[in-house]
Amino acid sequence: IEALIDLMARLPGLGPRSARRAVLAMLKRREALMAPLAQALASVALNARDCRSCGNIGTQDLCPICADPSRATGEICIVETVADLWAMERSRAFKGRYHVLGGTLSALDGVGPDQLRIPALAQRIADEAITEVILALNATVEGQTTAHYIAEAIEHLPARLTSLAQGVPIG
Ligand code: ZN
């Protein structure tokens, strides 16, 4: 039980206290919660992999979004992380496909374009007849540096480049 609490406490958003509470809650509902959770964890650990096209996480070579022909709208939305992709999907506002960079350019952390799937992006724009590239990067310095870099990297391609509106409406 201590080992389980130690592992749970390493998860984002959980410290030792909440890990202990979560483990106690699971022990109380061993059949209904703990056993299915253990099964789900084992299954995801075994089967989850990166989509070879967009970088989303799925269980097949291509994720469900890339495998769905109705998502081939000619639009591609560029996000930093899989969490951003999932957030966009929950909003149901976008019907095209995604490209997950896996981070932002950072000279300080030694993250260059090759680590960010940017070369693969240019290839996809050409291969999938993409007409619009939508940048959905964070409004941080790194996010904006990355946006500028991408704009230059795909400048020679015919796709139109747009970005999400930013800022918080007042009132
Ligand atoms: Zn995919």
Structural class: alpha/beta
Helix content: 40-55%
Instruction: Tell me the strand percentage band.
Output: 5-15%
Distinct bound molecules: zinc ion
Mean pLDDT, nearest integer? 91
Number of strands: 6
| Backbone shape | elongated
N-to-C CA distance? 50 Å
Task: Write down the Rg.
Answer: 20 Å
Strand order of the largest sheet: 4-3-5-6
Query: Helices and strands, in N-to-C order?
Result: HHHEEHEHEHEHE
Helix tally equals 7
Extract low-pLDDT stretches: none
**Major sheet size, sense and barrel closure:** 4 strands, parallel
General description of the model:
With 171 residues, this protein is α/β, with parallel strands linked by helices. The protein is 44% helix and 12% strand. It contains 7 helices and 6 strands. The chain has helices at 2-8, 16-28, 30-47, 64-67, 82-91, 118-127, 141-153, and strands at 49-50, 57-58, 75-79, 97-100, 132-135, 160-163. It has a 4-stranded parallel β-sheet with strand order 4-3-5-6. It is elongated, with a radius of gyration of 20 Å. The termini are far apart. The model has no long low-confidence stretch (mean pLDDT 91). Bound molecules: zinc ion (ZN). The site of zinc ion has 8 residues, from helix 4.
